[in-house]
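ARCHIVE CARD
Drawer: 12
Card no.: 0347
Subject: one protein chain, sequence and derived structure
Cross-reference: see card 0346
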Amino acid sequence: SYDNFKFTVEGQWKVNPNWEFTDTIAVAWSDEFTLYQDYAYINGYSTDTSRAKVNAEKGVAYDVDLQLGKKEESILLIAKVYKNNSTGTANVVGEYGHVELAARDISVSFSGGSGGAEIGMSVGIVDNLNMAVPDYEDFTY
């Protein structure tokens, strides 16, 4: 006989992105539970998600394709797992990674010589992976 469990991870954001990037949501577990079904959806629709990585005994991750102009507020990842009828204590962790992009201040340079004076300006781009606070759960089964 098998014991079945459903692990749920939710990521929420307050402001939609200014650029389209792909975020990632993931769930991982201990104690060799085996994945038998998984899915992820944004605001109830799975069209903007795709499985990014899976290890049936350890975890699953989904890419989240945030779209400009769409009212998107949250992502939900569901992983259904089973294990032979046994007892123990397991750990489950969920994480959501959000891509951020910003411009740095303008850099200015001067040059001059026999050909005349020049001013150079450039702006750098900074990227960052903003990790949501991971959500941990220990449970006895």
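Annotation on reverse: Residues 104 and 124 are 5 Å apart (CA to CA). The two ends are 14 Å apart (CA to CA).
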